[in-house]
Write a structure and sequence with these properties.
Layout lengths: L9 E4 L4 H12 L3 E6 L5 H13 L3 E6 L9 H4 L4 E4 L11 H21 L6 E5 L35 H18 L5 E7 L1 E3 L11 H10 L11 E6 H13 L5 E5 L2 E4 H6 L2 H4 L12 H11 L5 H7 L9 H7 L6 H14 L4
Helix pairs in contact: 1-2, 1-7, 4-5
GO molecular function: oxidoreductase activity, acting on the CH-OH group of donors, NAD or NADP as acceptor
Organism: Flammeovirga yaeyamensis
Pfam family, one: Epimerase
């Protein structure tokens, strides 16, 4: 049991990210001083929304210039913190060199932050943002799990540098986190393993999340002929921020937490937008046949290989979220609210 003193500052790495921005707001709302670690504190386009949050809420925000791949980069920002949130990690899938662009930043970044925690006597708990993809690569993998669904006991064993390297990067980064945590006794580690994150971006114009890209495709006509019934889990970014907050401040929190609200698929996600936006945008109304996707997929998106389509389309995705519900008392927004609020941000910012 780890009691965190809320009068002490809390470090958030990658503080201007899609998920981290909502976590920062959650902390500020609760009157906490946030040490916001970002690559460039002077870039107002990327941190202006955080400055505004600091003005709006009772907590205080202080910025620190950091770099994931530079040793001891986080030492100053971590001083005096009992709680560290490590959210910084690239979420991109289209890369030239998976080792350099995904695996190294994820693993080395995690290692840098956690080794700094070892050298910072005030630190009592580290919460790392991992991913459900640290438990599986393809929806078809679920058939080989003990429950036929993913839970906290399952690890990804099928991703590689050649296939789903993003999933590999998250798996190796989380394994590195547990390896470092298990080798010391000063602080405890909790990991949050979110499913596909949707919900409104605090800074839509500067957000590069893959989630926004999928949403944009739903509105720009890419899925007009139909959306693939590709199985995924979805979590609202605002609920995910609350999950992080609770993971940090609940003394009994421990281990991994699968953080997924809905077992769904791309078609079902698109259909939730019909009521509000269907009249004005070419949203998907039906499923794209798997055989057709096998033919055209590889030409429209190089990530849609035939192997990926075969292993993920028309295959149900299921996760057991009972641990986070029971341990942290989490409740989740309806899928329709998440999708509508997400899409509205794209409309408001003229992204679709």
């Amino acid at each position: 049991m780890t009691q965190i003193d809320s009068s002490k500052p809390v470090l958030v790495t990658g503080a201007n990210g899609y998920v981290a921005s909502w976590l920062v707001e959650e902390l500020l709302k609760n009157g906490i001083t946030v040490h916001a670690a970002v690559r460039n504190p002077d870039n107002k386009k990327k941190v202006g929304h955080l400055i505004d949050l600091g003005d709006k809420h009772p907590g205080e925000i202080k910025f620190f210039k950091t770099d994931l791949l530079t040793e001891n980069s986080y030492a100053e920002a971590m001083q005096g913190c009992e709680l560290v949130y490590h959210t910084a990690s690239p979420f991109i899938t289209d890369v030239k060199d998976p080792q350099r662009d995904l695996v190294d930043p994820a693993v080395k970044g995690t290692s840098n932050v956690l080794l700094t925690a070892n050298n910072t006597p005030s630190v009592k708990r580290v919460v790392v943002t991992s991913s459900v993809v640290a438990t599986y690569t393809d929806a078809s993998d679920l058939a080989n799990t003990p429950k036929g669904m993913i839970d906290e006991e399952v690890w990804n064993t099928t991703a590689s540098l050649d296939y789903q390297p993003y999933s590999l990067s998250k798996t190796l980064a989380e394994k590195k986190a547990w390896e470092i945590a298990d080798a010391q006794s000063q602080w405890d580690l909790v990991t949050i393993n979110p499913a596909f994150v949707m919900g409104p971006a605090q800074n839509a114009v500067a957000t590069t999340s893959e989630s926004m890209a999928v949403l944009k495709q739903m509105g720009d006509g890419t899925f007009k002929m139909g959306a693939p019934k590709m199985g995924v889990g979805v979590i609202d970014v605002r609920d995910l921020a609350v999950a992080h907050y609770k993971a940090g401040f609940t003394p009994e929190a421990k281990g991994r937490y699968i953080t997924s609200a809905h077992n769904t698929n791309f078609l079902e996600m698109g259909l939730t937008l019909q009521d509000k936006f269907g009249a004005n945008y070419p949203l998907p109304k039906k499923a794209l046949p798997k055989w057709l996707l096998m033919i055209v997929g590889p030409f429209t998106n190089k990530l849609l290989t035939r192997r990926f389509i075969k292993n993920n389309v028309n295959i149900e995705w299921k996760a057991d979220n009972s641990k986070i519900v029971n341990d942290l008392g989490m409740t989740f927004r309806p899928l329709q609210e998440t999708m509508e609020d997400s899409f509205q941000v794209l409309v408001d910012n003229k992204i679709v």
